[in-house]
Amino acid sequence: MGADDTSIGRRDFRGYGDDPPDPRWPEGARVAVSLVLNVEAGAELSTADGDERNESVYEIDEPVAVVPNPCLASHFDYAPRVGHHRIMNLLEGFGVPCTVSAAGRAIERCPWLARDVVGRGHEIACHGYRWERHAEMPEVHEREIIARTVDRVQRAAGVRPVGWHTKGAPSTNTRRLLVEEGGFLYDSDAYDDDLPRVVEVAGRSHVIVPYAFDTNDMRFMAGGDFVHAEDFARYCVDAFDTLWREGERHPAMMSVGLHARLSGRPGRVAGIERFLEHVRDRNGVWFARRMDIAHHWRAVAGLPVWTPPTA
Predict the structure, then answer these.
(1) CATH code 3.90.1150.10 for 22-300
(2) Of 94, 195, 250, 304, which shows the fewest CB atoms inside 10 Å?
């Protein structure tokens, strides 16, 4: 269940092949379902905040502008103002935990949100500082960005974040810098498997918990192919049913990506609800935070219990 030190330029096409390891999910579950709610409002690129340009990825397909765009900002602002509460209350009703992947600048502006997430028993993880790719970052700058993100999230949440997911493309240094920072149990900068894995990075065992863009409400954005809540629900249900059937022999995990500015809208939140209703009626399901999956994977791999560094 381990692998040699991996970098962005070194690809493994074989993976686990046709005989994946048994993850031994709790209570013999066939599928570990990981819901991820992304928090990005206030961290998107905005000239009003002194950024080099305005964000180019959002619901309304408009030309990228280099002047302040309060209308664009309001699309993102729906998330903390309304969508967050709607999704949190829905998850609470089902008794389902999630991982909240939060950009540092977003939490800097909405510290109450981090406290709410932790208070409800969810995990809060890091999603960069600004909502930006890291691919072109110089190593010195990226190291500073990682430290700043951890600081902002920890100050607001009162707990140390132990997971990381880069928006878009990480750099060739990202995973090594996360491991060298010392406080990250896992990262989700991979989309290549239905199971986690352990890699050796800088002499340490590090867990990769893969993410997914297909079972993700980002497909509601401009240019995407989800129009109705039922589109999201049906796709996620089909993905789950496949994994559940296969899970009789080979249990796996399923990631579902959510955004409060997208699925938090009243016409879309029903997609999450229908998916959860379907999964709830099946036996052999473990709803888990990503940190719980990573801890479990280390245990199955025979690795010692991981603890974050002390301050």
Answers:
(1) no
(2) 304
Q: In 3D, which of 203, 212, 209 has the Cα closest to residue 125?
A: 209
Q: What is the DSSP string of 107-142?
A: HHH-HHHHHHHHHTT-EEEE--SSS---TT--HHHH
Residue 162: helix, strand or coil by DSSP? coil
160: its two tokens: 């140390």
Token reading at 42: 């206030």
- 31-73: pLDDT as tens digits: 999 999 999 998 887 788 887 887 776 666 565 667 777 778 8
* Encoded tokens for 286: 């473990």
Q: How far apart are CA 258 and CA 212, in angstroms?
A: 11
Distances (CA, A) of 239 to 189, 248, 255, 271: 21, 15, 10, 14
Beta strand 163-164 with 204-208: parallel, antiparallel or unpaired? unpaired
The tokens for 153 are 């999230």
Between strands 197-201 and 204-208, the pairing is antiparallel
| Structure tokens that stand for 145 in this block | 């960005």
Burial of residue 177 (CB within 10 Å: 0-12, 13-18, 19+) is buried
Contact 61, 93 (CB under 8 A): no
Where does the chain show beta strands of DSSP type E?
A: 2-3, 31-39, 99-102, 123-126, 163-164, 186-187, 197-201, 204-208, 252-259, 285-287
Among 273, 162, 164, 165, smallest CA distance to 217 is for: 273
State pTM to two decimals: 0.94
d(CA 261, CA 84): 8
